[in-house]
Amino acid sequence: MKTRELGGLTVPALGYGAMVLSPGIYGDIDEARGETAILAALDAGATHVDTSDAYGPDGQNERLVGRAIKGRRDEVVVATKFGLAVPEGEDSRAQPVGYKFGELRVNAEPRLVRRYAEASLRNLGTDVIDLYYLHYADPGVPVEDTVGAMAELVKDGLVRHLGLSNVTAAQLRRAHAVHPVAAVQNEWSMWRPIDPLLLEAAGELGVGIVAWSPLGNGFLTGTVQQLGEGDFRHNAPRFSAENLAANNDRYAPIRGLADRLGITPAQLALAWLLHQDDHVVAIPGSRTPSHIRENVEAADITLHADTLAAIDDALGRFEVTGGTLL
């Protein structure tokens, strides 16, 4: 697959987001199916695998990734995150989000950073994390203090590159002044534009962008008509039955454009995203090997300027009902 640079770290243009392999995200899933999906991603060239210590209970998702890549570790750029799996007995601060439950709890105090990292290393079955993210900035801790503790992990060889997730342009600039940041991971898709100030700051600093939810939690595949029992997306107002129906109606022009181009709506959404900036990569997640391969093929799709203009025109008239997740 074509590669791109994230602040000196080379990764495929399309990686793999493993969050979807945790139970309760898109309904139940067994471990064997999860391992099969990760191996399908590696075989397809999506060798940048993204997880978090907060995906699933007790590091479940990290442990799943670790088992799947065992024996193929040298092929894989392993990325994980910390700050939301707050140790028992520790304080935490509220981070507001757009889900119905309203907030996440964060603790990114410097004294806990090594503890988080060592737990992730055990879960992943590796001696080094290629890309280590602060999952959310802690409202009670200056981001530069957290990054200072993360920098010690690089110095000691436990982490190769540092990342920040769900941050502002100002937070990125402050963090980067303490230690180089390779990548910022924020939501970005046809469904949710990135903050232009964050994109500008990343460009100035040489920081890559990793787009999470590049398919809008599956909405941009054009196939989500209703949600099953146990689907985490029930917490997102934009996926309520009424809002989902309205959003699907408004998305029809994009689906039609994909049909005319002979590609799937998911491929169009991913190809469009890769055309937005030379230093953006996407980490779509899927549980189905055929869909994973379909997503990866989007890295080879070139969109003509007229097509990009038509997409922008359609998106300009596509107002999402139900808000965003951040």
Task: Characterise this structure.
The chain is an alpha/beta fold and 326 residues long. It has one domain (3-316): NADP-dependent oxidoreductase domain (TIM Barrel, Alpha-Beta Barrel). 38% of the residues lie in helices and 16% in strands. The protein has eleven helices and twelve strands. It has an eight-stranded parallel beta sheet. The protein has a two-stranded antiparallel sheet with strand order 1-2. Strand 10 (183-187), helix 6 and strand 11 form a beta-alpha-beta unit. The longest helix has 15 residues, at 110-124. The two termini are 31 Å apart. The relative contact order is 0.15.
What are the defining features of this structure?
single chain; alpha/beta; two-stranded antiparallel ribbon; 38% helix; 16% strand; globular
Outline of this structure?
This protein has 326 residues and is α/β, with parallel strands linked by helices. It contains eleven helices and twelve strands. The radius of gyration is 19 Å and the shape is globular.
